[in-house]
Design a protein that fits this description.
The chain is 72% helix and 0% strand. With 325 residues, the protein is an all-alpha fold.
Length: 325
């Protein structure tokens, strides 16, 4: 197990370097340091001197990736890429272009993101799996057909419709909760209950249909037929045997949303005015703040890799046949 974890951690290093290189290349294909300076200075006619001063203050006056004028290792280290990206491997994200600490912003905004993402994830998982089990229990009946039709219908509706429709109906017409904004402590409940409900409803279609497919595949296997032949009820076969053996694909699907628990939802936070990491990323993209964008991409990649490792470890808990070597 220890050897496996060490290998996976070592594999993660070139992946994170590649993500950094790709993010760096894509960002500076669209924006040069001069463009970033003009955007941040906010003046239509910016003098070349002002641009050079801004680049010097923010560390964008150096070559991009290779400094041919430097000597030795300085050819690589005395560059924008090294000075802006190397520190992230020790989770030092530096400062945004407006001078704010990115690490402090992440720590502050992670709470609102988790307040929405974590309940959405847990409540949604329970509802999706339960609904899929119900359709599997009554497979090939009118209830199953109606459930699949409902899933397809919900899948066909854009997530924006749920957000805009929920804000219009629940907030504007019925005045049950605020239409947007956020407050700390217990007051946050009234601000996050609608985004959570919309997030759960929006995922019913695709998730329940996917879980139903997994359960139908498992329920037709030999071990399920053997359990029925021994006299076990359909409910016991489904909940005792099928659900347990379906945990590996379920865990594989769950890992995809682990980064979202910390990174927040871009659309939801933007539309509801939640000061989380999702809206922080959107604001950074609009402001062309490369420091924040690369920090959020790196953090998302790191969380995804951690999620994959935790998923592999959890396999050994739900299936004794799996051994990590």
């Amino acid at each position: 197990m220890i050897a496996y974890l060490i290998r996976r951690i070592l594999y993660a290093i070139p992946i994170l370097i590649g993500v950094n290189l790709l993010t760096f290349a894509l960002f500076f294909v669209v924006n040069t340091p001069d463009d970033m300076a003009r955007m941040q200075l906010g003046v239509k006619r910016v003098t070349p001197e002002a641009i050079e001063k801004w680049k010097l203050q923010h560390g964008y006056d150096k070559p991009m990736m290779i400094n041919s004028a430097a000597a030795g290792i300085g050819k690589l280290t005395d560059t924008i890429f090294w000075q802006k990206s190397a520190s992230m491997f020790v989770l030092d994200f530096g400062y945004s272009d407006d001078g704010r600490s990115i690490s402090r912003e992440i720590a502050t905004r992670m709470g609102p993101s988790l307040a929405i993402a974590l309940p959405t994830f847990l409540i949604g998982l329970i509802i999706y799996v339960s609904f899929a089990l119900l359709m599997t229990l009554f497979r090939a009946t009118a209830l199953d057909i109606a459930g699949v039709a409902l899933c397809v219908l919900l899948m066909s509706i854009s997530g924006l419709f749920y957000i805009i429709g929920g804000q219009f109906l629940i907030s504007k017409l019925w005045h049950l909760v605020p239409i947007s904004g956020y407050d700390g402590g217990l007051n946050s409940f009234k601000f996050v209950v609608l985004p959570i409900a919309i997030g759960v409803i929006g995922g019913i279609g695709s998730s329940s249909r996917w879980y139903r497919t997994i359960f139908l595949e498992e329920i037709g296997k030999d071990y399920a037929r053997t359990a029925r032949a021994k006299g076990l009820s359909e409910l016991r076969v489904l909940f005792t045997h099928v659900l347990k053996n379906a945990m590996i694909p379920i865990l594989t699907g769950v890992v995809v949303v682990i980064p979202l628990l910390f990174m927040g939802s871009l659309l939801t936070e933007s539309f509801f005015g939640i000061p989380g990491l999702g809206s922080y990323t959107i604001d950074a993209i609009n402001a062309q703040d490369f420091s924040v964008v690369r920090a959020m991409v790196f953090l998302g990649s790191l969380l995804y890799i951690v999620g994959l490792i935790l998923t592999d470890i959890s396999y050994t808990m739900v299936d004794p046949r799996v051994r990590l070597q």
